[in-house]
Amino acid sequence: MATFPYYTLHPLSSSLTPSSKGSVHLCPCSSTRSRSLPQFPSKLRRKATIKPRLLTIIDPILLFNGVATTFYFDTQTLIVTVSVLAAIALSLFLGLKGDPVPCERCGGNGGTKCVFCNDGKMKQEMGLINCKVCKGSGLIFCKKCGGSGYSRRL
Q1: Second label for 136, Cα 20 to 30 Å away, from 43, 46, 88, 104?
Q2: Which keywords does this Swiss-Prot/TrEMBL entry list (predicted)?
Q3: How confident is the model at residue 112 (pLDDT cuts 50, 70, 90)?
């Protein structure tokens, strides 16, 4: 049997010497000590054939995933994609909607100044209290626009 001493397999090992008894069997079919690779008959050797590569339309890595999982996204990618698409759709919708139109009734102010109070406070015997008509805002809200100052859009 062909065997090599253990120290020849690990040349960096300084603790083992040539006189050590440990050995490793490499090839049980040969009885001589040889460091060359076994030779195979020429019938078993394969010649390297170069096949012409055809024009590949699909990337070969996609074939390993299969047809059903070619466009697989993980959860994080799906959430980010949906969020970005929603933000783009919302900005396009609001941009194409147009500029807001001021209310004709209040002139874009959102209402008229309350005539019953002074900046939302009324004088009474106990001091200043909130106005009961405008509820302390100092403005009577417009019924048409609801106090926003813009006419409602369809």
Answers
A1: 104
A2: Membrane, Transmembrane, Transmembrane helix
A3: confident
